[in-house]
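Ticket #4471: complex job returned nothing on first submit. Input attached below:
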Amino acid sequence: MTAEANDLETLARDVRIHVFAEAAATTHVPQAPEIARALARSETDVRAALHHLAAAKVLILAPNDGTIWSANPFCAVPSAFRVDAAGKRYWGICIWDALGIAAALGVDASIRALCGDCGETLTLEVGDGRLVRGEGVVHFAIPAHHWWDNIGFT
Amino acid sequence: MLLFRDEEHLEYWCEARELPRGAAITPEQTWRLAHGWYKNKVKADWRRHTLEETEALLASIGLTSAFWNLRG
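Support reply: We reran it on our side without changes. The output follows.
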């Protein structure tokens, strides 16, 4: 591995640790300028690291502007999958990720998600590491082998 | 992955979009999938699951049909 590639790997690791720790602690998914300031690196370097992480399917970038859409399971913007946990409000891009937030944080959580058809609010609750309340059915539209062909649709 | 109130609402959704039905699983299965997938994601030493580890996770939840085949 070249020194440049090694530096990118190291920075990508630092960016990953920072982004996920921030998202977990604050609910806010930091974007490139904030990450650059926190790690005392150039924004150009950080953007390269983010693209590296996206290529490795560690997080998902918005298609047009390269901002982090989801440091999955933590969605950077409000969605139809709201998670209240540890006194904070998080968002997931799908019901899998909403439950994933409870798993990643290791805390109890209340999840309110909208029915994909009618918009009715459905509630799931996690307590003591178990799903203690669940309703509805979860639909995977895309076969597993093709999940990452279009992760937004998946 | 969307949540639907029940099978009927899932069928409405598929019909309205002229999309084939994929696979429907329970919230309990989804929780077990999410827990296995994400429980270490915030940790500094997190790493991606290997293909074999992911297959084992899916199998442990009973997701063994061709729909869940990761190898194409």
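Chain B has a mean pLDDT of 95. Closing as resolved unless it happens again.
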